[in-house]
Specification:
Blueprint: H1 33-42, H2 46-59, H3 65-77, H4 83-92, H5 98-109, H6 115-127, H7 136-147, H8 150-162, H9 169-181, H10 185-194, H11 200-212, H12 216-228, H13 235-248, H14 251-263, H15 270-282, H16 286-295, H17 301-313, H18 317-326, H19 332-344, H20 348-360, H21 368-381, H22 384-396, H23 403-415, H24 419-428, H25 434-446, H26 450-462, H27 469-482, H28 485-499, H29 505-517, H30 521-530, H31 537-550, H32 555-568, H33 573-585, H34 589-602, E1 610-615, E2 618-623, H35 632-648, H36 667-670, H37 676-687, E3 694-698, H38 704-716, E4 721-724, E5 729-733, E6 736-737
Parallel strand pairs: 3-4
Antiparallel strand pairs: 1-2, 1-3, 4-5, 5-6
Helix pairs in contact: 1-3, 2-3, 3-4, 3-5, 4-5, 5-6, 5-7, 6-7, 7-8, 7-9, 8-9, 9-10, 9-11, 10-11, 11-12, 11-13, 12-13, 13-14, 13-15, 15-16, 15-17, 16-17, 17-18, 17-19, 19-20, 19-21, 20-21, 21-22, 21-23, 23-24, 23-25, 24-25, 25-26, 25-27, 26-27, 27-28, 27-29, 28-29, 29-30, 29-31, ...
The chain binds one DNA strand of 10 nucleotides through helix 7, helix 9, helix 11, helix 13 and helix 15.
Length: about 750
DNA sequence: AGCTCCGGTG
């Protein structure tokens, strides 16, 4: 910030000059109360305010409640001032009037620490002779909105009614905003409808509540209603309407809104321009966004981040990086936009690379959002060392765990194989929302603790947390991994009538898995026939997978499932791979080669198996037959040693696990001994200490032979092996696997 | 006095 050489306000200087009056503001000369008060308005630094403050103390003006109030207002609301100073001043005032109380409450409500607003409000109730008035309530309700403190806000609503203030449009508008930000759209709408003299802010608050609460349709409907009632929309209205278009990804309507803004000569300020930018970006029109962005006279950090995030989320990483590098200043939201885009598009390594770059730069400090993304990326990779490092970082920096962070931590520990730690985070969490509960249920499910997952689900219901669609996916998943057929069925049929959650494609896929995996193929087929929604590819893949396990020659069913699957998704590798496995199992080699020809003609290749293992914070990746690792020689001699040991205990490789769908150049795939998970395990054996568990992550389902070998290794080498495949964890110990061979 | 724009979890 530039320093001014001459202060714009002439203030007393405590100099030993020849000036006969060292205190030119002293009332003994020519300063009355009005001069001092006008000086307050001209202050542009805390230092100047303090000088005026001193002068007021000297003259006794500070003890005039009105004048002291002026000082508070200036110090609390001025952009340069700190609230701490305002608070100090406030605490010195003997009898603050209601206006002064309100000013402080107002300032705290929009500060980073809105709880203070509520605390001052309580003091007001105790110490002030006046009851809070119609100015007080909008501020405290705003604080409650910021904190999403539902019960507190409801209590304010009650007080408003008792105080006969419930027809005040300012208060009612704040309540609409409050209920909206707590996610209770019904209550928000109830207040809105009952607002007697709605002004444009009433409409804006409700439109915004709908747009942000996931009901963009209703927001747009309300905008039309507003026109019908002849209420003229303003720039804030249009921001809300655009936000609704963005949520709906409705580019046509968005374009219409932009032309509406032009036709109706609505004031286009920076915020509105940014909302237009965001709409164009998220709705996929880079061209319109770029044109607007280049045209904008003034751009702020929102404008830049909106462009950056738009490109990044749609996978235009080069453009995104270009914008990022061009940003005049980067706040943490800009970094997060880049990190989260990588993380959400299945590029966890790229996400973590940017995270490291952030740590090295001095631009910004990681915040909760950054850490959530970094934890999520660690979870995807199974990078436990990094995940643990972030956990320590959170503790060291005294960052309070919100539900987002708690969820990500639980998910990270569970996906990295440390279920104990995941549960520890869960039990010590202060607040548990549906995300926290669901993540923990998912953790138990993926580790094969189906019963415990169901018990936790019951505890969740006891805690009055409402399960949603994802909760049920996880609960059903727990049933399918553990073979809890009856429980799964019971819960599935309770979903809609008892919990009001409509079963979706994922739930049907889980149910087909529960039935199919346990051998009830015909029931699975019946369920699919009865589906009220069109069966999706995932449902047919699941049925096909069940056919491989229990088909017993029912090739017709497998072929039907496969053709349904290919109808929906002609390039689905899984369809060909599974069906050819089934043909191979029954010795139908001619059909195997037929499928091979189709795949070749279509240019389809099996997704290559890839296993990774983190050692000392570095993630090592192995493909089948990989010899690119720098310890490759040692790895292969370890594999030879393992093979010899296995042979000595009488192990015979099970060749039926072979894919039997390989091109000549993929012959190495045939060699069971070169599978990626074996390479990773061998590397784990030579690079980690004897007491450390070996944690491997595989991108596909673990191979059957590898599963048997891993069990033996866990016994022969007395090592724990945690193998996470695409679907679940296999925890090998003492020759057994946690999945009890049900997988 | 109240309403607005970028980045997040299962």
């Amino acid at each position: 910030m530039a320093t001014q050489s001459t202060p714009p306000v002439s203030l007393p200087r405590h100099s030993k000059s020849n000036n006969p009056n060292p205190y030119p503001l002293s009332p003994t000369v020519n300063n009355d109360r009005y001069t001092i008060l006008s000086l307050i308005n001209q202050c542009n630094s805390t230092k100047q305010l303090k000088q005026v403050h001193a002068q007021m103390l000297r003259t006794g003006l500070f003890f005039d409640p009105f004048s002291a109030g002026k000082l508070i207002t200036a110090s609390a609301l001025a952009s340069f001032s700190s609230l701490d100073y305002a608070r100090q001043v406030f605490d010195q005032i003997p009898q603050p009037n209601l206006f002064t109380w309100n000013t402080l409450i107002r300032a705290y409500a929009s500060s980073p620490d809105p709880i203070q607003s509520l605390l001052v409000f309580l003091q007001l109730l105790h110490h002030c002779e006046h009851f809070p008035d119609k100015f007080t309530f909008p501020f405290v309700i705003k604080a409650a909105s910021e904190l999403k403190a539902f019960r507190v806000g409801r209590a304010f609503h009650g007080m408003v009614i008792k105080a006969s203030l419930s027809s005040d449009v300012y208060i009612l508008n704040s309540l609409v905003h409050f209920y909206g930000s707590c996610g209770d759209l019904d209550l928000a709408y109830a207040v809105f409808v009952k607002t007697p003299q709605k002004d444009v802010v009433s409409w804006n608050s409700m439109i915004t509540a709908f747009a942000q609460g996931g009901c963009p349709e209703e927001a747009l409907e309300l905008f039309r209603g507003m026109e019908k009632e002849n209420v003229k929309p303003n720039d804030v209205t249009m921001v809300g309407v655009l936000s609704a278009c963005t949520k709906k990804l409705d580019l046509d309507f968005g374009r219409w809104v932009c032309s509406y803004i032009e036709r109706n000569e609505i004031n286009v300020n920076l915020t509105l321009s940014n909302a237009m930018l965001d709409m164009y970006m998220k709705c996929g029109s880079f061209k319109d966004a770029k044109r607007l962005f280049d045209k904008m006279q003034e751009k702020d950090i929102f404008s830049w981040t909106t462009m950056l995030d738009g490109y990044a989320k749609l996978g235009e990483y080069d453009e995104a990086r270009h914008v990022f590098d061009a940003m005049p200043s980067k706040d943490i939201a800009a970094w997060n936009a880049l990190i989260s885009a990588f993380e959400q598009n299945g590029k966890p390594k790229e996400a973590l690379a940017v995270f490291r770059e952030l740590q090295l730069s001095k631009d910004a400090k990681p915040d909760e959002v950054t850490l959530v993304c970094a934890l999520s990326a660690s979870a995807q990779l199974g990078a436990m060392d990094l995940g643990r490092w972030i956990d320590v970082y959170i503790k060291k920096h005294g960052i309070k765990l919100n539900c987002h962070l708690t969820t990500s931590l639980i998910d990270m520990y569970a996906k990295c194989g440390d279920l104990e730690k995941a549960l520890e985070v869960f039990y010590s969490a202060e607040r548990k929302d549906v995300f926290v509960w669901s993540a923990t249920i998912a953790g138990l499910a993926m580790h094969g603790h189906g019963r415990a997952a169901l018990d936790l689900f019951s505890k969740m219901l006891e805690a009055k947390v409402k399960p949603n669609a994802v909760t049920f996916t996880n609960v059903l998943c727990a049933c399918s991994h553990t073979g809890l057929v009856n429980e799964g069925q019971r819960l599935f049929y309770q979903m809609e009538p008892v919990y009001g959650v409509l079963p979706g494609e994922k739930h049907y896929a889980c149910m087909v898995d529960i039935l199919g995996r346990s051998g009830h193929l015909q029931e699975a087929v019946k369920l699919i026939e009865k589906m009220p929604i069109l069966p999706t590819a995932s449902v047919w893949v699941t049925l096909l997978g069940a056919c491989r396990l229990h088909g017993n020659g029912n090739i017709e069913l497998a072929e039907q499932a496969c053709s349904h699957l290919l109808e929906l998704d002609p390039r689905n590798h899984g369809a060909y791979v599974l069906l050819s496995n089934i043909y191979a199992k029954t010795g139908k080699w001619d059909r195997v080669s037929g499928l091979r020809k189709i795949m070749r003609d279509f240019g389809l290749k099996k997704e290559p198996g890839c296993s990774s293992i983190e050692v000392n914070g570095i993630v090592h990746e192995f493909l089948v037959g990989d010899n690119s690792h720098k310890l490759s020689k040692e790895i292969y001699s370890k594999l030879d040693e393992i093979a010899a040991k296995l042979k000595s205990v009488g192990y015979v490789p099970n060749k039926s696990h072979l894919l039997q769908l390989v091109e000549e150049e993929d012959m190495k795939e045939q060699a069971l001994n070169l599978h990626s998970e074996k390479l990773a395990i061998a590397y784990g054996l030579i690079s980690t200490g004897p007491s450390q568990p070996i944690r491997v992550v595989k991108n596909l389902r673990v191979c059957g032979d590898c599963h048997s070998v891993a069990k033996l290794i866990s016994r022969l080498y007395d090592r724990e092996i945690l193998l996470r495949d695409r679907y679940r964890f296999h925890h090998f110990r003492g020759g057994n696997c946690s999945c009890m061979d049900y997988w």
